Each structure stands twice: as structure tokens, then as C-alpha cells.
Amino acid sequence: SQQGEEDPQALSIQEGENATMNCSYKTSINNLQWYRQNSGRGLVHLILIRSNEREKHSGRLRVTLDTSKKSSSLLITASRAADTASYFCATDAKGGGNKLTFGTGTQLKVEL
Amino acid sequence: DSGVTQTPKHLITATGQRVTLRCSPRSGDLSVYWYQQSLDQGLQFLIQYYNGEERAKGNILERFSAQQFPDLHSELNLSSLELGDSALYFCASSPSGTSAGGEQYFGPGTRLTVT
């Protein structure tokens, strides 16, 4: 079963707006990662945040991590139609080797 | 393009059959991971190999097996197929296989349909 839960399950916004997705997980982690998947295709790595980091930026992406609440959020600023995809958080649990446990995903639709 | 290749792209087969999915990792990556994505179970880790040896096992059925060869490519064998095995199977690779972690590079997947 999946460790992470993501919220919302689906999100529809207008181009130019910001999109925020949240992820909760259950165990102690080495790091948390966010991936994007376009319509049944392969996953693309977006950003990785380590357990000792609280915030990280990459281009229009901002990720926060709160290990005390076991939660993370992904913010996409100034969204574009090309950002339409499913977004997954994935955790690399402490003592779990390097395997990733994925959340349920958020389907983002950015409309023109 | 992640540099990870998977063949075939699509596979349609009947219940009870056996199939082999193939994965070539990025050049230089020693770890290969297999994941299954289905509508009801979501994305699930199956198994990891590091430099030819099994490193971690997840929710992999006994009917499924995998191996990593000396040239680091990997194969996932699925036997006695059932309708519920229909899913997207992804392979991913990474340079290391330790708990230090790091991003994984995913292939385009093999879509398996069992009829």
C-alpha cells in the first residue's frame, strides 16, 4: 500500500495562477521527492528535498518540508498549460534502502 | 529523455502466459528499480537490484521475478499472468543503491494488458 497521501486529488486552475499540492507521509525519511507524469508516460524528477532541509526552490517550483508534521507541499508559480500533468510525492524512508514510496498523486489541469 | 530504455512499449497477452520486460539503465547507473502502476494500487515499488545483486524487495508477487545482468540491464519476468496484472511497469535507475538516496531516472514504461 502507498505511504503518502496527496491533497487535492485533482486541481484545475487558470494559466498564470499558482498551484499548491500537499503530501503527507508516515515514516522517517532520508528525503522527499516530487515527480511529474504526463498522461500515462514515464515519471520526470522535479525536485528533491532532504530531511534536514525546510525549503527548496527550482525555477517556478518551491517545495517545503515539515518533518514534525510529516508533510510537504509543492508550489508551482505562474502555471502554464504545459504544467498539466499528475504530480507525485515520493519518500525515501530511513533504513529503506533507496526505494521510493509514492503518494496517490494530484492531477493538475491548467486551462488557457 | 531520461536515458533509461524499456522494451517493449506495449504488450498484450492472455491469462496464464509468461512475459519478460526489459530495462537498460542510464550509462553508469548501478541500481535498477522496478515499479508497477495500476489504477487500484497506484505506483508501487517491486524490487531493486544493485550491481547485479538484489538489494530491496517490495510488494512483488511470487509469480514475478527479476534479475540484473553483468552489463547492468535488467529483466522482470511475470508468469501465470492474471487480469489484475494489467498495469504500467516502470524501470528506474540511479547511480547508487545506498540509503543515501537520490533521484531516480524513470523509463517510459511498458504497458501490459492481460486479456
Would you give an account of this structure?
The complex is a heterodimer of chains A (112) and B (115). Chain A contains no helices and eleven strands. Chain A has strands at residues 5-7, 10-14, 19-24, 29-37, 43-50, 55-58, 61-66, 71-76, 85-93, 101-102, 106-111. In chain A, the strands form two sheets. In chain A, strands 2, 4, 5, 9, 10 and 11 form a six-stranded mixed β-sheet that branches. Chain A has a five-stranded antiparallel β-sheet with strand order 1-3-8-7-6, with no helix packed on it. The mean pLDDT of chain A is 93. In chain B, the strands form two sheets. In chain B, strands 2, 4, 5, 6, 9, 10 and 11 form a seven-stranded mixed β-sheet that branches. Chain B is globular, with a radius of gyration of 13 Å. Chain B is mainly beta and 115 residues long. The A-B interface holds A 1-2, 30-31, 33, 35, 40-45, 48, 50, 88, 90, 92, 94-102, 104-105 and B 2, 4, 31, 33, 35, 41-45, 48, 55-56, 58, 88, 90, 92, 94, 96-109, 111.
Could you write a compact summary of the structure shown?
The complex is a heterodimer of chains A (112) and B (115). Chain A has strands at residues 5-7, 10-14, 19-24, 29-37, 43-50, 55-58, 61-66, 71-76, 85-93, 101-102, 106-111.
Class computed from helices, strands and strand pairing of chain A = mainly beta
Work out the helix count of chain A: 0
Largest sheet of chain A: 6 strands, mixed
How does the overall form of chain B come out from the CA principal axes? Answer: globular
Strand composition percent of chain A? over 45%
